[in-house]
Amino acid sequence: MKKIFLVPLFISCLFISACGAARVPMNTDSKHMMNMKPVSGNETLSEWSAPDSITANQPVTISILIKDKHNKPIKEFETVSTKKMHLVVVSKDLSYFAHIHPTFKGNGRFEITTKFPASGDYKLIAEMTPVGASDYSIEDHWITVQGTPPGSVPIEPDPTLTKVIDGTKVTLSFDEKPTAKKNIDMNFTLYNASSNKPIKNLKPYLGTVGHSVAIDEDVKQFMHIHPLYPKAKGPKVVFMTYFPTKGVYKVWGQFNVNGHILTVPFVISIN
Ligand SMILES: [Cu+2]
């Protein structure tokens, strides 16, 4: 991995890794310090182990071994957003999304026991930062849950970018028309759905005011986006994003509303 720009306290890089995953800045307080030009590189290798046959709704244990370029298990990982590994699981049609945290077992190995809701293919995307690495690393893996997958409907951009989930009204907006290969601010604004009052007391979720993940309809591009102002409390949570390609993306915002983790999906088109 090439280090392109590193300032103490501000990790200000964006990478496109070998697997096509785009990375966006983390823990960023200062917008003007960004260098958002993607570079290629990836410091890790991975080995995934799962049972040969996986059944829907049955617990399954998955083990992920993270190794360095010389095939040696990586001994230590940084704690980032309160965890050593973040794992996003999505179904191929992006209808299912989970953000979970495997346990570090030592000597490069992480483990998680989880369930898949239905038959079909799932992509598992792991994010971790080896101690001493210049930035975080992404490893991914497809898993097939046996049986006939339920009919999937291709995702379509949402006609309106406001929705109500669990009593919270959430609006997604952009400071300008979202365009590929450009830094843009993506804003989630949260209101109490019954009173329509802005929510100004968001609690931290994994150490910041929110997390966002964006994945394209082909499940090739992955971005885990951290808020520009991690200590904000709402109603607006700003994520600086960089969509690497044109096309349709599903975006999930995750927020802590009074102790309840709200996950809000939107489907958008990037020109
Ligand atoms: Cu996480």
Give a brief outline of the structure.
This protein is mostly beta strands. The protein has strands spanning 6-7, 10-11, 15-16, 39-40, 44-49, 60-68, 86-91, 97-100, 103-106, 109-114, 120-128, 137-145, 162-165, 168-174, 183-192, 211-216, 222-225, 236-242, 247-257, 260-270. It has 2 domains: 43-145, Immunoglobulin-like (Sandwich), CATH 2.60.40; 162-270, Immunoglobulin-like (Sandwich).
What does this structure look like?
This protein is 0% helix and 45% strand. A four-stranded antiparallel beta sheet has the order 5-6-10-9, with no helix packed on it. The protein has a four-stranded antiparallel beta sheet with strand order 8-7-11-12, with no helix packed on it. β13 (162-165) and β14 (168-174) form a beta hairpin. The protein is built from no helices and 20 strands. It starts with 5 loop residues before the first strand and ends with a strand. Bound molecules: copper (II) ion (CU). Copper (II) ion is lined by residues 81, 83, 86, 99, 101, 206. Keywords: Signal.
